[in-house]
Design a protein that fits this description.
GO terms for molecular function: peptidyl-prolyl cis-trans isomerase activity. This is peptidylprolyl isomerase. Residues 112-199, 228-311 form the PPIase FKBP-type domain. This protein is an alpha+beta fold and 484 residues long. It folds into 4 domains: 13-63, no CATH class; 85-199, Chitinase A, domain 3, CATH 3.10.50.40; 211-311, Chitinase A, domain 3; 316-464, Alpha Horseshoe (Serine Threonine Protein Phosphatase 5, Tetratricopeptide repeat). It is built from 13 helices and 13 strands. A hairpin with a 2-residue loop joins strand 10 and strand 11. The longest helix has 29 residues, at 45-73. It is elongated, with a radius of gyration of 43 Å. The protein starts with 12 loop residues before the first helix and ends in a 14-residue tail after the last helix.
């Protein structure tokens, strides 16, 4: 016979689940997740209780292991006893400086100075991970530009030439919360730094030291002045400890020499922000424009400059056709003034900008179309004039041809091209251009004079050729070696 089930057997699993829930607050999720309702049906009580307790204990062990593993992955706050000054921006004790050796003067490096250092980097246990002295190679960077870790930018700015200091830095000012290369997690570090030297930034295009800048006060915003823009500056020029020029002056960038602004100051102004105050040391070619003050070119001059205000010349890509036309008129007027003062190279540069501005401009309005055509012709014609004066005859001829393609009856360009042909000794072509110019304007006395000049030159040229070929005393273009 089949044995009868004892009364101690649990018939209702739901009743047992409620019993387990009273033992632990975590049993509900555990029991339900394991489907104990089905597991415990018709199971002896002592076996059921034993099994449930084992499951609950195992679950608690898993939870404890998970909590422990999570705790171990969190970076621990590193505490170190470090004597020194808190130089962190927020005074959060994240960057502490301790001076090991005092510097030799009271001068500190300024923003964007080139600084030269030796450094030793170590972990908190003293393990060195980098040492520039081992390589016998000093390191340099632009201060405050973000080229290095924040601890260096902040720390070196507080140092003096010749000073040695030790810096304790939390990850925030070092390699960050994720570390960098050698660090896989947040790590505090210690750097010992020696400030060997610092100098202002060389702004010269050739890096020849002719324009050295130090920023005394940083400027505002992000925009910079540009060529042909208008600037206003406060300046003080010092030569051999004497102030020779002190004023507030407004000028057009690129034309500052007209107001005795040296080339080096103009170059530096284009790299300044609004309200920036800087110190410049100029020498050699950077002194061009100071002829009025009779300062020898082999000397050096110091300037202090503050950029008070400026107005940029808008870039071509930002202009609509109407604005391009207006800017072209402005630049042509400036170039015309330069031609009057015989600054042909500077004038040609601006006439070329005018030509480029107008190359893609179109208008429906009749008046604007007429003005556009006149400006295009004037730009090409005046470019021809500038290059003729500069002795660049091939370029002059090119611009004459461009202008004549727009206006075949352009008297000035016909005359200028005739002058180019004279320079090339092509008197026949020169006469043709002068004759065409004379037809357009019969009262053009200069064209008539040039025609006569070319005729005389043709006669001399013909006689010269004749004499050359009739001179049998010269060893011969036409001699034949009979021995051959």
């Amino acid at each position: 016979k089949a044995r009868a089930k004892p009364k101690s057997y649990i018939k209702d699993s739901f009743t047992f689940v409620k019993l387990i829930q009273q033992q632990t607050s975590q049993s509900n999720d555990l029991v339900l997740s394991l489907n104990l309702e089905s597991l415990f049906i018709n199971t002896p009580v002592h076996e059921t209780i034993h099994l449930a307790i084992k499951i609950i204990i195992k679950k608690k062990q898993q939870n404890n292991q998970f909590t422990k593993s999570m705790t171990s992955t969190q970076p621990k706050e590193e505490k170190i006893l470090f004597q020194g000054e808190d130089i962190s921006p927020n005074q959060d004790k994240g960057l502490i400086k301790e001076i090991i050796r005092q510097g030799i003067n009271d001068d500190n490096p300024l923003f964007d100075d080139q600084v030269f250092i030796h450094y030793i980097g170590s972990e908190l246990d003293g393990k060195i991970f980098v040492n520039s002295r081992d390589r016998d190679e000093k390191f340099n960077f632009s201060l405050g530009k973000g080229d290095v870790i924040p601890a260096w930018d902040l720390g070196v700015a507080t140092m003096k030439r010749g000073e040695i200091a030790r810096f304790f830095s939390i990850p925030k000012y070092a390699y960050g919360s994720k570390g960098e290369k050698r660090y896989q997690s947040a790590t505090s570090v210690i750097f010992e730094i020696e400030l060997l030297d610092f100098v202002g930034k060389d702004l010269s295009d050739e890096n020849d030291g002719s324009i050295i800048r130090r920023i005394i006060r940083r400027g505002e915003g992000r925009k910079l002045p540009n060529e042909d823009g208008t600037v206003e500056i406060n300046l003080k020029g010092i030569y051999k400890d004497n102030v020779f020029d002190e004023r507030t002056v407004q000028f057009i960038v690129g034309l500052g020499f007209l107001q005795h602004i040296p080339l080096g100051v103009e170059h530096a102004v284009c790299k300044m922000l609004l309200n920036e105050h800087c110190q410049l040391v100029l020498k050699a070619k950077a002194l061009q424009g100071l002829e009025k003050f009779s300062i020898p070119m082999n000397e050096s001059v110091q300037y202090e400059i503050t950029l008070v205000k400026f107005e940029r010349l808008e870039e071509e890509r930002l202009l609509n056709d109407k604005e391009k036309l207006e800017q072209a008129e402005l630049l042509k007027a400036r170039a015309d003034d330069l031609v009057k003062n015989s600054y042909y190279e500077l004038a040609a540069k601006r006439y070329q900008i005018v030509a480029n501005l107008l190359s893609s401009v179109t208008f429906r309005d009749t008046n604007d179309t007429i003005k556009l055509r006149q400006l295009k012709i004037a730009a090409q014609s005046n470019l021809a004039l500038c290059h003729l004066k500069l002795g660049d005859y091939r370029q002059c001829k090119t611009f004459c041809n461009n202008a004549l393609a727009l206006d075949a009856r352009n008297e000035k360009c016909l005359f200028r091209r005739g002058q180019v042909y004279i320079a090339f000794s092509n008197f026949e072509q020169a006469i043709k251009d002068f004759q065409t110019a004379l037809k357009i304007n019969p009262s053009n006395v200069a064209a008539q004079q040039q025609i006569e000049h070319c005729r005389q030159q043709k006669i001399k040229q013909k006689e010269s050729y004749k004499a050359f070929f009739n001179d049998t005393s010269k060893p011969g273009l036409f001699d034949v070696d009979e021995k051959v």
